[in-house]
């Protein structure tokens, strides 16, 4: 009987935790992503900040880099936004990243599970760890609920979020908003021997009409829309697949053009790293070029 009661209590606790997490995240309209994480020395190092923004946008979050031109409602009420931060718990040979979401009072309202990667190359390792950590946020199935915002302020009834993953559960007590200076410890980045891989796990490309991010998955690369002037493309949409062929640096490509038509074609990366795709139109082959964003 005691075991049954304990199990029932645990199930109830997990249910309440998941419900709290859902309602809390849904109370916030925007996500702000810093241009630089504290554990890295440069802005957007390893394209980790771009990748963070992309992952949130793909899940339906309205996302901005810190310092961008914000919408008027966010300018009037900064508490409509959560700020995403990435914490580095890496050891010598393993990248370990955790995503934290902080409210306007600098208090943590959600902590993801820890994402890990043993990839040897820094960029691939960090991005893989971040993607695994982001799975906790995907599970929340976010959808902004304006009913949780009272008088253009985030409702005081909205409590800190409890992570769905029991091991990574983080509960922040509701106390006065007193800034706390975290303890900063030196983090050793994983050892990275010299590798000969030409493409990293995620790179950004653009032309005048389209910007997308290219992500390595197994032996292929998948293209997802970042932004576009054309209504045929939706943010986060998968628009292309690049598969290796027997010829060096030549790929078999499935690609959706600006008219919404899917092409089975070929493409390659030039000496500058730009992507060139052959598109057949009215019997003629046109080369569409996407410039790699540095």
Please explain how this structure is put together.
This protein has helices at residues 2-26, 48-58, 72-76, 122-138, and strands at 30-33, 62-65, 81-88, 95-102, 108-111, 115-117, 149-150, 153-154, 202-206, 210-217, 220-228, 238-244, 250-256, 262-269, 275-281, 284-292. It is α+β, with helices and mostly antiparallel strands. The chain has 2 domains: 2-168, no CATH class; 202-292, Lipocalin. The strands form 3 sheets. It has an 8-stranded antiparallel beta barrel with strand order 9-10-11-12-13-14-15-16. Strands 1, 2, 3, 4, 5 and 6 form a 6-stranded mixed sheet that branches. Strands 7-8 form a two-stranded antiparallel ribbon. α2 packs parallel to α4 (122-138).
Summed up:
The chain contains four helices and 16 strands. The protein has two domains: 2-168, no CATH class; 202-292, Lipocalin (Beta Barrel), CATH 2.40.128.520. The chain is 20% helix and 32% strand.
List keywords for this structure.
alpha+beta, Lipocalin, globular
Q: Average pLDDT across residues?
A: 77
Strand order of the largest sheet: 9-10-11-12-13-14-15-16
Q: Overall 3D geometry?
A: globular
Q: List low-pLDDT spans.
A: 6-23, 159-200
Based on CA atoms alone, the radius of gyration comes out at 22 Å
Report the biggest beta sheet as strand number plus sense, adding barrel if it closes.
8 strands, antiparallel, barrel
User: Can you count the helices?
Assistant: 4
Number of self-contained structural domains: 2
Helix/strand-derived class?
A: alpha+beta
- What is the string of SSEs from the N terminus onward? HEHEHEEEEHEEEEEEEEEE
Percentage of residues assigned to helices: 10-25%
């Amino acid at each position: 009987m005691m075991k049954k009661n304990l199990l029932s209590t645990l199930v109830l606790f997990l249910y309440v935790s998941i419900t709290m997490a859902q309602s809390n995240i849904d109370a916030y309209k925007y996500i702000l992503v810093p241009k630089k994480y504290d554990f890295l020395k440069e802005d957007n190092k390893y394209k980790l900040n771009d990748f963070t923004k992309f992952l949130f946008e793909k899940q339906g979050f309205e996302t901005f880099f810190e310092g961008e031109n914000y919408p008027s409602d966010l300018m009037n009420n900064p508490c409509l936004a959560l700020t995403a931060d990435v914490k580095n718990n890496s050891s010598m040979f393993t990248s370990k990243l955790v995503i934290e979401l902080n409210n306007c009072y600098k208090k943590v309202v959600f902590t993801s599970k820890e994402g890990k990667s043993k990839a040897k190359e820094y960029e691939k390792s960090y991005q893989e760890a971040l993607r695994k950590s982001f799975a906790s946020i995907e599970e929340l199935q976010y959808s902004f609920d304006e009913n949780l915002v009272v008088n253009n302020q985030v409702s005081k009834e909205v409590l800190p979020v409890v992570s769905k993953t029991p091991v990574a559960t983080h509960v922040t007590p509701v106390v006065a908003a007193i800034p706390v200076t975290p303890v900063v410890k030196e983090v050793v980045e994983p050892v990275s021997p010299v590798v000969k891989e030409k493409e990293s796990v995620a790179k950004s490309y653009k032309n005048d009409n389209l910007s997308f991010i290219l992500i390595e998955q197994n032996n292929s690369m998948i293209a997802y829309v970042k932004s576009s002037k054309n209504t045929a493309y939706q943010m986060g949409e998968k628009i292309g697949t690049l598969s290796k062929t027997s010829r060096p640096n030549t790929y078999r490509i499935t690609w959706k053009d600006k008219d919404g038509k899917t092409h089975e074609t070929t493409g390659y990366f030039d000496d500058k790293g730009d992507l060139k795709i052959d598109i057949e139109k009215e019997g003629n082959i046109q080369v569409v070029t996407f410039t790699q964003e540095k």
